[in-house]
């Protein structure tokens, strides 16, 4: 929706029509807009594929196929839909992929969609890079102490008007943190996948305009969200992969401005210690001595090659996993 808004603003001046096709909104309205014709369709994979298979949208004349956040589009969460969409596209087209992170596990997959591609890289091509305008503070903490510490940090960082995003890992965690903060008087909104599109839009718009400048969000808000003047990002829980860490902290320090990212790191996150230490060093940030005890080795991310079947046998006193 954000991308379509920008395309629409620019396109109207030169007679280019943009239609936004996303899930969570009325399909009938999108169908009517498509029938009028469109030069640019900005879409999420699921809804685009639905409209294509139902013959409400033809991709036969597509000249440019653009994947934003391409690494996420090509992982196992979306790759099946992307492949199905690609099957509807003409062979003669230009494919473009954009992403702030480009893990090796995805690079091999992207070669299936690209022919003799030109690669443009900002920063070091073979490792993760963080914006050096972002001050990264990593705090090793006991998991049970995070609630109290979060409230302390908000008293330090949030004056009730400046924009702050608190990132958590799971939607239930987001709801609990949102509820806890609201009960203690904070003006806060939540953003996660349990909320419908209308609720998400309300939360995002109120955050953007400053009406509710404190947001508790899962990684649905970590990528592609362009919001001006986010001063602080607090990682209440560490993400599952380092790429998401880079995307999360990148919500601040945008457009040449400075920002701060404060991250809680627990014993349960120790497998990420090596990669995090390398990222901090590359960005000229302080590496807390406490994190060194978890080790400096970097674990390679395994490519997602398909669904894993798990068989569980239950005996009287234990489980057997095959």
Structural class: alpha/beta
What name does CATH use for the topology of the largest domain? Rossmann fold
Average pLDDT over all residues: 87
| Helix residue percentage | 25-40%
The residue ranges in which pLDDT falls below 50 over 5 or more consecutive positions are: 302-322
Helix and strand sequence: HEHEHEHHEHEHEHEHEEHEHHEE
CATH architecture of the largest domain: 3-Layer(aba) Sandwich
Alpha-carbon distance between the two ends? 43 Å
Total strand segments? 12
The CATH superfamily of the largest domain is identified as: P-loop containing nucleotide triphosphate hydrolases
Number of domains: 2
Proportion in β-strands: 15-25%
Number of helices: 12
Describe the structure.
This protein has 322 residues and is of the alpha/beta class. It folds into 2 domains: 2-110, P-loop containing nucleotide triphosphate hydrolases (Rossmann fold, 3-Layer(aba) Sandwich); 134-292, Rossmann fold. It has 12 helices and 12 strands. The chain has helices at residues 2-11, 27-35, 45-53, 70-73, 79-87, 104-110, 146-157, 171-183, 197-208, 242-249, 273-282, 289-292, and strands at 18-21, 40-43, 64-68, 94-98, 134-140, 163-167, 188-191, 214-217, 230-235, 259-265, 312-314, 319-321. The protein has a 6-stranded parallel sheet, with helices on both faces. Strand 1, helix 2 and strand 2 (40-43) form a beta-alpha-beta unit. Helix 3 (45-53) runs parallel beside helix 5. It is globular and about 55 Å long.
